[in-house]
Amino acid sequence: MTMTLRLLLLLGLCQKTVSEGPPQSPESPDVLGFELPAVNYETETADSFTPGPIGALFRMVQVFLRVVQPAAFPEDILRKIIQRKFDFSADYEKPESVVLTLKVIHYELGILICAVLGLLFVILMPLVGLCFCACRCCHRCGGDMHQRQKRNGTFLRKYYAVSLLVIGVFISIGIIFGFVANHHLRTQIQKTRKLVDNNFKDLRTFLNETPSQISFAVSQYNTTKKKAFSDLDNIKSLLGGRIHQQLRPKVIPVLNDIKAMAEAIRDTKDALVKLNNILEELKMSSARLSTVLSNVKMDLEQSLGDPVCSTPAAEAVCNSIRATLSQLDDNINLSQLPSLDKEIDNVQHVLQTDLSSLAQEGYKSFNDIPEMMQNQTADMVSGIKNTLNAIGLNVETINEKIYFQDKMSDLLGHISYAESYIRHLLPKLEEYYVCWWLGGLVVCCLLTLIMVFYYLGLLCGTVGYDRNATPTTRGCVSNTGGIFLMVGVGVSFLFCWILMITVVLTFIVGGNVEKLVCEPYQNKKLFQILDTPYLLNENWKYYLSGMIFDKPDINLTFKHVYSDCKDNKSIYSALKLENKYNISEHFDIEEYTGHINSSLDNMNMEVNNVVLLDAAGKKNLRDFGHSGVDRIDYDAYLAETAKMPTKVDLLTFADDLDEKANKLPSGNLKWSLTTSAQRLRKTHHGEVVPLASSLKSLHQSIQELQQQSSGLGVKVTNIISSLDAAQDFITNNLSPVIAQESKNYRNTIVGYFEHYMQWVKISIKERIAACKPVATALDSAVDIFLCNYITKPMNLYWFGIGLATLFLLPAIIFAVKLAKYYRRMDSEDVYDDVETIPMKNMQKGTFGFHRHQTTQLL
After folding, report:
1. C-alpha distances in angstroms, 78 versus 73, 83, 524, 536, 671?
2. Would you call 234 helix, strand, or coil by DSSP?
3. What is d(CA 766, CA 167) in angstroms, rounded to the nearest whole number?
4. How far is it, in rounded angstroms, from Cα 734 to Cα 742?
5. What residues are paired with 146 via a beta bridge?
6. What mean pLDDT do residues 741-746 have?
7. Max Cα separation, the chain?
8. What integer is the mean pLDDT of 757-782?
9. Which of 12, 56, 61, 727 is spaced 20 to 30 Å from 81 by Cα?
10. Which residues have a Cβ under 8 Å from the Cβ of 197 and sit 6 or more positions away?
């Protein structure tokens, strides 16, 4: 009982420690129907999170980051920084700090180079724009509204236009990336509240369901107890029946043979009496037939003494009839067959003992074994039931003894506090998101505005360009296109440095978060750093085991805990709680089942009165074996009964006699012969036919009796030998059989509780409080929210905006160059032959020309 209370307390303690994981139903129900209730969670795991088509763009940005920063994850650097062995503010002069600084710079070299280039862009572009503006004000850098005509002018115009168009396409792609990233960030941020709600709902569900699952596991004791009670109530069939089945192959065949022999004795007696009666009747019938035939024979002899037979005509007929008279005689001699009275008396003596009743007593004695088992174990069964009921009373009051609700309320309180804190931060996050979204939208719109100017400039310039017009006579549409291009250049100089500042800041933050947080979190290198011995606490080798067990030497790592929770294992297994609460030691099956084992082992079941057949029954069998039934001269009986009653067929003889009589003249002789023939026919139908039928029936009965009694002595001997063997088997092996089956029965009863205890152990170790919601919550915070919701869209954003901003530089150059071909000039080159000759038509030779500045050519 002490061990039972210890079990209950341990279960209650586990409720407090395993409340960090959700219960999970076992993979398959066991034989007693143990299956933990399933718990459904709503949060989508990081493994099932898919960004959609934009994921291809995210991967493209990741490839770019790997090119920019190909160095491996700086585990050593982060370890030293976490251990506070490096302080940038005070320890920069230490050699170790210098080396570490160089390692940090080496790792961040790619990002630093890109950031420096970006900063140079930020610094130089406003200066270049200022100088460009001042230079144009001084009529330089294209500020002079005069265009020299060149032989390749048309080619250059087309080249500048196509180049600007291609660059514009690249800039547009970058702008699209920016818009897509900004919209995706907005969409994902809107899912944050639902993500937070689902995670906290799952954590509450798992904390609330864990006590109910433990209560369910404890309540399954009643199922086990009911099954044990059922088997105890059926001890007659389960224990006694098994013993009965063990003995049955040896006992039942012998009793069946004895029963069959008892029936054979009765059948033999009936057959002997029947045969003997038939034989007596046949002897009388045979004597009557013999008398009738003798009388007919004498009558025929007297008739053949008639004087007519001496006449020559009748002499031959009479002689032939006289020659056949010897055939009128009976063919069997049943009187020589001995009577069966002696054998009948012997069998009748055997039947004075009712062997069938003795066999039934053997059946009853054998079949009473299960009943004897039940009677002898009644007190033991009652004691075991009392023990199980006493344990059950303690199990039923487990909730009142442990007060697990009070213990769970602390954890629920911490979760509620965390939830309220996060919910308080969510509005601020949404405000920051709105600012970010608006800022990103403004940046994208600025770039879009620039590209609108460039595209309008290209469109108007291309559509309004007249190849026959001189630079000073270009149309309004073409001039507007040039103006659009220059406006785009001005806006580019005005805002490109602001765009690059945005790109640099987001690039430094997003790139480092992706490389230092997201990637190492996914490949679990981040956990490897946290699992570094003596990292978080210089006195603890393993931080988690030191914090949980106050035993820092236990190998319990963040990676192990996260992986186990990710695989939906229980907190007990994930946190290795066996180092504090060893379930195997507390669940000592032998102590729980000790009383049951001792009660079943002390069963003193004796079955000493199983007698299959007493001495009178054996003597009865031997007397039947010596009754002489098997020694009857069956061959003589069969040979005699196989004969026909007469030597000749009387009907044939009568027909022949009539035929011969018809050859005689009419008179007394003929009439006498005809009368004798009729008497023979009558004798055949009245005597011969019934006698022949009785002989045939007697012959068959003798054959059956011969077959039945064949080897009777051997059969009896074999039955007695089998009977002695079965009786010896019961005498010598009944106790071992009872002991073995009692052990099996005990193992069955105890096995229920062993199975229950084992199931509880496995449930606590592997299934109850499965901590997947904890891993899911961590994945939601880092992998989904930080990386997928924020960092990846941010990286795509700076990638697109950076691409567009970088291509603004060549776009400015080509736009400035191209604007000269679209804008209306103040002056133009004048040729000596006063002809406007297109550059593409210029042939060999050098034409002299001068600048006409006196008047403005329209």
Report:
1. 9, 8, 14, 12, 150
2. coil
3. 60
4. 12
5. 827
6. 79
7. 202
8. 82
9. 61
10. none
